[in-house]
Specification:
The chain is an alpha/beta fold. The protein folds into 2 domains: about 5-70 and about 160-230, Ribulose 1,5 Bisphosphate Carboxylase/Oxygenase, CATH 3.30.190.20; about 75-160, Rossmann fold (3-Layer(aba) Sandwich). About 35% of the residues lie in helices and about 20% in strands. It has 9 helices and 10 strands. The protein has helices at about 5-10, 25-35, 80-90, 100-105, 120-125, 130, 150-160, 180-200, 225-230; strands spanning about 20, 40-50, 60-65, 75-80, 95, 115, 160-165, 170-175, 210-215, 220-225. Helix 3 links the parallel strand 4 (about 75-80) and strand 5. Helix 3 (about 80-90) packs parallel to helix 7 (about 150-160). It is globular and about 60 Å long. The termini are far apart.
Amino acid sequence: MSKHGKKYQKAAESVVKGQVIPLGTALQDVKKLAYAKFDESVDVHVNLSIDASKGEQSVRGSLVLPYARAAAPRVIVFAKGDYATAAEKAGADFVGADDLVDKVAAGWMDFDYAVATPDVMGMVGKLAKQLGPRGLLPNKKLGTVTFDVASIVADLKKGRVFFKNDKSGIVHFSFGKVSFDAKKLQENLAAFVKALVAAKPAASKGKYLKKMTIASTMGVGLQVNPEDALQS
């Protein structure tokens, strides 16, 4: 029995499984084949030449897309004194220290990103069980643990987004909406792929970008050549 509905099956009829499609055509097809009543995200799934079980081969990074995927995110900052003032001036939605830790510990989660200065990470660490599973715990590698709170808050408000590989060595990333025109989607995808290449671990062997598939949230996957995105 098929796991997909009739609308998906109808869209899939026009796709040749395993065929590599020119990027420009694929982006147009993703828009045409989207059938949901909401504005679906357009996602890319990249199989990487890494051993995901080895920490030194993990891939993670961030970038500011040329065209933001959504409205400005809600950003909170754990900081004190001048750093708290700088975060407020940069546009943070909520700034605090012990009071903010208590607020989150009590169950408040109305935010998209959390930033912290290094000197308060001791108290923020108490929230690991709440924030960790949601990917919201401030992380030095991602730049969200820093004394330069003004810069990271400004970046996050402009649309900085993060990516990392899963246990299978695949990176899943949303680079736009079906409502975006193909040019905006292509520029966003190019920016992501370039950031992904820049994040290549030294221990990775062979062809780094092995396979790339794009699809809308509910739609059919279309295989494209990663090199097409790099040349955009």
